[in-house]
Amino acid sequence: MNKNKKNKFKYNLILLNESTLEEVFRIKTSKLTFSLALGIFTLISFTLLSIIIFVTPIKHMLPGYADVSVREDVLIEAQRIDSLETLTQHNERQLLIIKNIIADNIKLDSISSIDSTDIEKWNNLPLIAGSAEAAFVKQYEEENAFNVNGYDDYNKSQKQTIVFIAPAIGTINKRFEPNNGSYGITILCPPNTPILAPQDGHVILTNYHPTQGYTIIIQHTDGYISIFHQLGEKLCNIGSEVKVGEAIAFVDSKNNKQDSHIQYELWHNGSAINPEDQITF
Length: 281
Description:
By secondary structure, this protein is of the alpha+beta class.
């Protein structure tokens, strides 16, 4: 008896007309039918939601489903941001030093100042050799009175000069004018022109500035130093050994500028010299 009642138990959903109270719509359902309908609806909803998530770009927003290339791009951009931050801090320190120099806030060295009168006194002192020094000079002159090898060796060392090659093929736009603050020359070159090492040497500095490009400094023999400014792309690093004629960088090729150029300086024993005196362009 109880079993039949459970089977006959049903739910009725009736819609009535509010004004006439007439029955408009009726749905009869049982617990089993309602559970099946709810389960089918849940399954269909879950399936549609899964398709939307895994087929559309929404899946990239889920943890663990990001594209590998996207993650690599994020890491590269993070490294660039760190590099730019370090470069900005370095430039800020340089600007602070320059401001202190202009404002005369840099403390003087511990070396005491030399009075000009003291310099004149030292210059006017007679150079009198001591007895030991005079004896040595006399002995050396007697032993080498008829020896000309020293003079020949000196001439040979003077004749052995370093031959430099042109660092780039182009036209010189600005000459060497140290009195006007130009310690080198400016060479107009086509974009992507290779920059060559003018002589064998050792790279002692490579630096980058966002607006001025790369700077490369090469130490040569006999006290010569080559300095390159406004380079577009470098091909060497600090500590690299370069050979004469080896490409060390390229001229800036941004927007294919027709007026692309580099600045080249040649120094010898701490003094800037005219590159055109050493190199045929």
